[in-house]
Amino acid sequence: MHLLDYGVILAYLLVSVGLGIYFGRNQSRKEFFAAGKSMGWLPVGLSVMATLFSSNSFVMYPSIAYGSGLRICLFLVSVSLMAPLILWVFIPVYSRLNCQTAYEYLERRFHVSVRSLASGLFVLLRIGWMASATFAASVVLANVMQVSQVSVIVVLGIVSIFYTMLGGLRAVMWTDVIQFFIFTLTIILTLGLILSQTELGVSGVISTYFEGRSNLLVDFTPSMTLEYGSWALLIGLFLEALSAFGADQVAVQRYIAARSERTSQVGFMINVIGMWTVVPGLLAVGVGLYTHYQQFPEEMVTVLAAELDGELPDWRTKGTDHRNRMSVPEYYQSYPEYVAEDIRALNLQDQALPQYVRLHFPPGVVGLFLVALMAAVMSSIDSGIHSVTTALMVDFRDRHFAHWKPKSNKIEVLQDRALVILIGLLSVVLACNVSEMGDVFAIGKKVTAGFGGPLLALFIMALFFKRSTTAGVMVGTLAGAVITIALMYGASDWFSVWFWPIGFGLTMGISLFVSFLTGAEHQDSEAEPLTFWTVIQGRHKK
């Protein structure tokens, strides 16, 4: 790496730390957890976008486009379809009930036990998500910088913990805004470099990508094992997006920090527009990488050689001809047509982008690329530890151990900051040990689907099913989560996105059945259930 690259990285880290110090002055509980409820639509929208579209996504989308096709773009269709529910159901409910967390609504709808269950599931989901997201981007950072993954995770974790601990939600949101612009600029520069280094032009790049390949855009084959099958993506990613933007404290905390309900809604639409900008950009990077390596397959030979450690894969050693006596580099230099095929077979498509960065990015731009990945990692860490801290303090300490809540604002903020440090350190330790779980995409889906689908079903039951009961949703949510997690390991060959509709459907079915069995005891209650319709029509207690 060039000295200029180190300068770009250092400047970014110093700016992040500086924001934490600047916003850390005169902190209060309301400021630390909700940014004083004063944030405008731009930081709300871009912070939601940068937080939930983070390091997993930055690594994942080019990798999928390079290795598997463009079917993942159906994510944008799913996001667009679920957007009205966020705009006109979830945001108005949280705003009009003046909730501090998403799970406070569940207590007002059912019982404090449901609030605690949901918040607990969120804490588990988000800590696991932080670890997997941090690990995902650290793989690329470590490869490009030629340092250990542990070093990357620890350094970025410490910086993220520091500015989050000092500056609270306001520092987190403004660093998210900066991070969004950094990785957007990086995507544009990467695309420009790829196109400038090919003689094919845009049309040639596209035609090369599609040449001799089928089902790159859609594949509606009914299958539980088909990777990136269109049915799985449309259904599973719809539910995942609805959960992430509607039932997840990370996003809800940003809606709560907005000046008004309208500000939250406009901010959410900014987030959707950002998705439609960044996802196609990252997929285009993957298309460009595929075309580039089709022209210059020898550039990926070193990646194969490092992975194979001197031994050709089994499917290339059949027979007794002279090829069996070749070294790995000699073999692929003699048979370059096998390079792309074996990269995909060995699941090495994650290496395509870092290899291109090492070979072709000029000084300074390498640093910007690394900063973009660092921004993605830090966005995952800062938002995760802050939202988990909020959930633990508001949903558990304040609700169950109110006598522990200090009367002094100074001590309150000190306790909040101490918990941020503890959660942050736990996430960093877990991130250093994620590698046993599988590839980047599967890691994220395994971590979130087990809890995310049941958690979303719990909110849907609360909002739209008037006769749902506390016993019904408690049993349904717990059973749905346990069965989904068991299935993930019992049916490990199923495409990971399918576990979203499985977890959601199981929870809905069990909750409705148990609610039917236990509903008689609630029929005589005079209190009207706090459903979506009750809140929107203003018939709830203020």
Automatic annotation (TrEMBL):
Belongs to the sodium:solute symporter (SSF) (TC 2.A.21) family. PROSITE patterns: NA_SOLUT_SYMP_3 (PS50283). Gene3D superfamilies: Sodium/glucose cotransporter (1.20.1730.10). It is a multi-pass membrane protein. GO terms for cellular component: plasma membrane. It comes from the Bacteria. One of its GO terms (biological process) is sodium ion transport. It is found in: Cell membrane. This is Sodium/glucose cotransporter. The gene is sglT_4. Its main location: membrane. It comes from Gimesia aquarii. Keywords: Cell membrane, Ion transport, Membrane, Sodium, Sodium transport, Transmembrane, Transmembrane helix, Transport. The chain crosses the membrane at residues 6-23, 44-63, 69-95, 116-141, 147-165, 177-195, 228-247, 268-290, 368-396, 417-435, 447-465, 472-491, 497-517. GO terms for molecular function: symporter activity.
